Task: structure prediction
Amino acid sequence: MKPEVHWLLHFCLNQNLLSHNQVNGILSSLPETTDVYECSKLLISSGWVKDAEFLERSISAAVENVQKGFPPPDVAGTKNQTTTEQQTHSDRNPSSDTGKSIDLMEFNDLNDEDLLEVVTDLFAQCKSNSASDLHITGGARLRIRKNRNIQYLSNQPIDDALARRINLMLLSSEQREQFEAEMDLDYALMLTNPKDDLPMRFRVNLMEQKNGISGVYRIVNEQLMSLEDLGFSNVEVIRKLLDFHNGILLVTGPVGSGKTTTLATLVNELNQKRKDHIITMEDPIEVVQHSAGSIITQREIGNHTKSFHSALKSALREDPDVIVIGEMRDLTTIEMAVTAAETGHLVIATMHTRDAKSTLNRILDVFPPSQQSQIRAMTAGSMRGIICQRQLPGVDGGIALASEILINTNAVANIIRDGKETGLEDAMQSGKRFGMQTMNDSVKNLLTAGKISPEVAAENTYYATEKQ
Result:
């Protein structure tokens, strides 16, 4: 039987429109060549399923599932053994990890108060299921990201009206006005977990797209983790970088690599062992830090200040010891960060770059040629280190952290000053005695330890990345 038919029957079973006996009868009587449209006509003509609109939506979802390579589900209790054996962590039946597939049709019948309660419970389930993101997007199925893989929570796409209702009901009136004016919005959301009455924090992005509204909710881990917990293999080297009282320390990596979590951990390390004034500027505030040994001042872009630039300018007048920048995005912010590092502050920031070499190029290349010599000299003198990280799929279905560590030795400083970044790899290899580690070495170590597969290792070595 064609896999689309299995999906269609699965949807009907899930909505209690068909019994297992009826499905068994259909599977045993229909020819193997029957397609999903013929099966749908049979269901209508027999009177077993009367909701033509439901069947139309289910056919679209069934075809989409097959096109995306999802294996046909078990209907009537007889699994396709070959498909089951080949099934992977990322393309399992949506209900395999999160219980019964969510019926979005039931959401439409709820008033706002009940809908908010159901949605809050959904957020709590995603958090307890160790998901990193929840996607509520018009025209697409409800889905989460867990261990870097997409898992679906519903079998049918959510229509834009319901997606818009859910996403907008979580906004304040001011946030809603801003979104309607700009069609994009980044904000921090806090909800109360109905299971334990504890707060749940999310970093949210809302945007308009061709099928309607799209909301992505990044689940923030409220519990601060240690460097060891994050999976760094060279924690003492990183802790030595936190002993400096001036200079720049960068945390870099692609989107979704855990930079914000690492940044929060570094701030917590400083908070526990130093008595300083730490000012953070974030967009938005994700992990709430409480003053311990240090005094921590957290500022949110948009709510407490207009921009990273204005926040950094103000921070220099607030008697800071440590300045934490959620993301260095533009020339002005980078220039002010380098200047702050030169004038006696420790600056810790993140950037969206893949390794130490591309990080240095990003910093230096944003400046016009007339400033290149000056900024190279300033960066060579102020750079303390670069921590580059990637989250790789682990063999156990979890995540393995690969990291590259650059320390600004005399050799590295000369490379930065002279603009000879091609020699950076050799400098890092010879600088292993100082604690430096290349991404290649980190990936190889994970492979040797049995934490990642050879295929993942091959995809994340330097030369494989260069060809992408």
About this structure: The two ends are 39 Å apart (CA to CA). The longest strand covers residues 199-209.
